[in-house]
Give the backbone structure.
Amino acid sequence: MQAFQFQAATTLADARAAAAAGAKLMAGGQSLLPSMRLGMSQPESVADLSAVPGLSGITVSGGVVRIGAMTTHAAVAASAEVAAAIPALADLASRIGDRQVRNRGTIGGSVANADPAACYPAALLGLGATVHTDRRDIAADDFFTGLYATALAEDEVITAVSFPIPEKAGWQKFKQPASRFSIVGVFVSKGPKGVRVAVTGAGASVFRAGDLESRLSAQWSAAALEGATVSAEGLNTDLHGSAEYRAALIPVLAARAVA
């Protein structure tokens, strides 16, 4: 790991100024620090967000679950309010990484990193969530733009994510056993944002499966997905599975999530 300057932001203004000056913002550090150790990320300066007030906590009001950006995966998984409102979201959080990752990693850090195999992006897209920053609100449909790419400006800071409470939702994850990242993960929901099927791990970025959504809009049941197929074009091929393998998994996991 190369030498770098470390600073602790104590206000959002500090964080914005640090980012504007070229610092890499760090939430839980569970993605950033490993990438720095491997030389994949080499920031000259890192600004820690853990001391910035008002960025953590969970509220449920008006049909919306709002989660502060610095709220850990473990806190989401353990929240009785989240479990009551969106059980699939609590389930997803409980299966991210290992205990260390869940106790240090944050929803804001995961969303900002936009790893193509991360779990939270599927929940955001699968529920029609909104990402709140220090300057605007961004719909999940507009937030994820490509491989490790988002709509965030360089000095923009995520403050919270809000999820509309669905009528029904489910999550299924076929994981890589060592890293626990999704080889394919599928989040389904039926609610105020319509029927949504979001897929992670299969492509360069999280995406919605439109044909599966159409089938479930006509009939919300696992049976509606019998015989459904997803094109392998543009999907990932690596040592864990081919594009065709991932394409075959998507409707299978979607049906399980619905069931």
